[in-house]
Amino acid sequence: MTFTRLLTGAALALGMATTAIAEDKTKVGFIYVGPIGDGGYTYEHNQGRLAVEEHFGDKVETVYQESVPEGADAERAITQMALQGADLIFTTSFGFMDATVNTAKKFPKVKFEHATGYKRADNLSTYSARFYEGRSVLGVIAGHMTKTNKIGYIGSYPIPEVIRGINAAYIEAKKVNPDVEFNIIWAYTWFDPAKEADAATALIEQGNDVILQHTDSTAPSAAAKAKGDVITFGQASDMAEYKPEPRVSSIIDNWGPYYIERVQAVMDGTWESTDTWAGIDDGMVVIGEITGPVPDDVKQEALAMRDAIASGEYHPFTGPLNKQDGSEWLKEGETADDATLLGMNFYVEGIKGDIPQ
Amino acid sequence: MLRLDRRPQPSRLWTLLTPPLAVLVTMIVGGALFAALGKDPVVAIETIFWEPLFGEFAFYYRPQLLVKAAPLILIAIGLSLGFRAGIWNIGAEGQYIIGALCGAGVALAAYPSESWLIFPGMVLAGALGGWAWAMIPAVLKVRFGTNEILVSLMLVYVAEQLLASMALGPMRNPEGMGFPGSRNLQQYAPAHNAELIAGTGMHWGVAAALIAVIFSYVLLNRHILGYHIRLTGEAPRAARFAGVRPGRLILFCLGASGALAGLAGMFEVAGPAGQVTIDFNVGYGFTAIIVAFLGRLHPVGILLAGLLLALTYIGGELAQSNMQLPAAAVQLFQGMLLFFLLAVDVLVHFRLRWRRAEAA
Amino acid sequence: MDLSSINPILLLASLMVAATPILLAALGELVSERAGVLNLGVEGMMITGAICGFAIAVETGSPVVGFAAAAAGGALLSLLFALLTQLALANQVASGLALTLFGLGLSALLGQSYVGIRPPATAKLDIPLLGDIPVLGPVLFSHDWMVYFGLALTLAVWAALKYSRAGLILRAVGENHDAAHALGYNVVGVRILAILFGGACAGLGGAYLSLVRVPQWTEGMTAGAGWIALALVVFASWKAGRVLLGAYLFGGVTVLQLNLQAAGVDIPVEYLSMSPYLITILVLVILSADRSRAPGSLGRIFHASR
């Protein structure tokens, strides 16, 4: 492959050139799937980038490109950053997986980090957050807070990440409130505020008084606010503008500490290809302030759950647990392995309805 | 009072002069915008228009220009045939999606066979898929007189929903850990639309685009069908007297543009994109409409317009990551370029004149 | 599955809210298409209206001023389209698409400092007695004033097109611009006004999304509503009353789909999402069979010296 060699050569030459010029500046690139103004997923990744700038000051230069489509465009965007002398590149969406793998092959000297994927290489790490741990904590609050025993859940697409969250929340809600029932709407979008608002309204009108969401906009909170007497949770970012209610807590994606750690590793020359799946204990998943109508005992119980998960004392998927069809999944005391969790495509026992295929 | 007088003949001089003029005006106004955002306008303009062609890493961006321009040109060529005859296919995006689904469908069904027949089969399926999707508005138009602009547009949304359900359902990669998206065809050699010569960006889609340009040039200038197309667009009544059968023309124009859009989708999914994913389509079908008009519906013009637009895409991305220009500013800049290109077009067909105001 | 949990009254009420943005935008587009102008830039004008309305409402604290600003913003953007297509005689399809691109970029740029803010609430019309009527009360009389504005506008557009002299001229221009010109009407002037009206309505529709329905500002938040508005005009065969019907149908299918899911009905979501578009095509076919058709000069360029 002459082209590969050409690129590598250029990258090497450039690598030398830049190190000569800017000895102490580490260049870090970020590829975003959405606009940094989305107020949710990409917004939080960008907060992580800003945290890196804040932490390292002059020693680091960050660049980013927003709203990058998946596929050929992503590969070009990543290559571009590598060509421009980035030392470390974070590609922050699952859809960038193959593009990142391809680019990593062409630039062996550049370090890559791909979020939420499963393909690695010597210069390509993967990282993701155990958001389901946060869902368990929210599940506790949701189970206690519902008066109608109906909890609405707005899912984006039926993929393992989302299904995992539904299961985690359901398990805990069911434990504190055996009568609880989950009503799930698949919005078939990550981000369409109008549709999310409609979904929340539909759930509320059918008597669901707690709304959990796995889509990115604050529209469900706004809909809940309009209807009154319904609680919601922030997703991806804190959604603090809906404090103290209807938003009573949130799962915050907190990428800053991880990004800082990895940039530091590149600076120290200690960077290695790793597979990180971090949760509450590493600070990658943060539970937003619990506010509003949540009584103190519920709040304490939720915080205890958070701390138990953080300390490793408790695993959100601990047996005995059955799958939806009644077959045994986890025996008493057994915990789920990561491989099963990563590819989770089934509901646990008690959840009604089918996962769309 | 400023008046427009129609020229007896389109001005050759202005035909050649207007595009550079529009680019120049865009650079000035766009430069002002970038300056207002606190970026150096000269560097920004240079990054967008110069860097990808002659900058340090042009060896990488030049081939990428072809990759980006190929689907635009391929689709626009097909659309221009219909547009010339006054047949408006606005739904190329849908035909592009269906072409990709059909092409990928053949490959995924054949997996893991190593037969050499797979790629030709995909090409055929892609073209047929796009053709069939375009036949829906065509047949409705011929049979019932239904407006093809709207039917083809509606079918884009239907195709998008179909794409999402395919990526999540039947075409989902069984080894993909449950994530949406098909197998990556780049890793399946018999189906991979690879570069024909490594490092040039030339894949079959680029070749097809070039062939389409030549073919369309010959068709429009040397063939009776091309003559009929032009005649229908310019003088529908005369065309009827000349024995043009409008129904057949509609079927041909929509069918051809659908097939080319389908081909573009198929080459994209088998090559640069690699996968059927929920967000596979990135608007080539709509952008191609603009390309067709910027190229004045002329094959060579479309070739140049496609390359120009690809340049602003790639240069715009560069300006984003090098200068941290917001993506929105680049989008705005492209919008401006299109506005100015469309606006100065008036000089080709009309003469500007000062006249004393007179009663109409 | 529990269909009894779907409350038809609430369903109807939320349908009216869901339909309002596309209703407003479609009414505007209807008027400009009746004048013979096909403006495919509705999405761009909507989102520009969304940010203008949002920003001004936040700055002034008044949603009413916000809506006015949204209409002005949408109209201003459509003025670009008017200049291009009416004075520079550019192709309408290409100009409209360019307008959408331009509007999306512009709105994102304008909105950079408005992410994550809550706008002031738009007042609900509290009609004392009517709101208490069982069934009809909550369905018809418990909304914010923009919902009623949309209904009133529908009525106004319908009456103006049908009975007023201005409506007659507008239709004449749209049906046959050469004849209208020969009769001494200012074709370009009428069309520019129609385009501006279209822009203002699209702006209002966008602002309804960012100020009432969602309510927040995020890039790309119209998420295709402008294109649905375009489809709606055709669906309605260029008649104001049918636009209303169509908007309720479109809004209704979405709302119903979500309600069925919430009730646990096992439905193939992705196929149901296609249904509004398929229904539109079907309606188009039926309409074209009964010889009801688009304005004669739709999308054609007018130049007086022809």
UniProtKB/TrEMBL annotation, chain A:
The UniProt record lists the ABC transporter substrate-binding protein PnrA-like domain at 25-311
Source organism, top-level taxon: Bacteria
Quote the cellular component terms of the Gene Ontology held in the record. plasma membrane
Q: Does the keyword Signal apply?
A: yes
Q: Which UniProt keywords apply?
A: Signal
Claim: Cytoplasm is one of the keywords in the record: no
**Matching SUPFAM superfamilies, A to Z?**
Periplasmic binding protein-like I
Q: Which residues form the signal peptide?
A: 1-22
Name of the protein described by the UniProt record: BMP family ABC transporter substrate-binding protein
Q: Which organism is it from?
A: Roseovarius spongiae
Q: What is the lineage of its organism?
A: Bacteria, Pseudomonadati, Pseudomonadota, Alphaproteobacteria, Rhodobacterales
TrEMBL record, chain B:
Any one GO cellular component localisation term in the record: plasma membrane
Q: Where's it found, cell-wise? A: Cell membrane
Using the record for this protein, list the coiled-coil segments as residue ranges, or answer none. none
InterPro entries, per this entry? ABC_transp_permease
Membrane-spanning ranges: 12-37, 65-83, 95-111, 117-140, 149-168, 202-220, 249-267, 273-293, 300-316, 328-348
Q: How does the UniProt record describe the way this protein sits in the membrane? A: Multi-pass membrane protein
Task: Provide the GO MF annotations for this entry.
Answer: transmembrane transporter activity
Q: Which UniProt keywords apply?
A: Cell membrane, Membrane, Transmembrane, Transmembrane helix
The answer to whether keyword Protein biosynthesis applies is no
Using the UniProt record, give the first listed, main subcellular location. membrane
Q: Does the keyword Hydrolase apply?
A: no
The residues the entry assigns to the signal sequence are: none
Tell me what this protein is called: ABC transporter permease
State the organism of origin: Roseovarius spongiae
From TrEMBL, chain C:
- Please state where this protein is localized: Cell membrane
Q: Which Pfam families match?
A: BPD_transp_2
- Domain of life, source organism: Bacteria
Q: Which keywords label this protein?
A: Cell membrane, Membrane, Transmembrane, Transmembrane helix
Main location per the UniProt record? membrane
> Is this entry keyworded Nucleus?
no
How is the protein disposed in the membrane?
Multi-pass membrane protein
Which segments cross the bilayer?
6-25, 37-58, 64-84, 96-115, 145-161, 182-209, 221-238, 245-265, 271-289
* One Gene Ontology term of the molecular function aspect: transmembrane transporter activity
Cite the CDD domains for this sequence.
TM_PBP1_transp_TpRbsC_like
Identification of the protein by name = ABC transporter permease
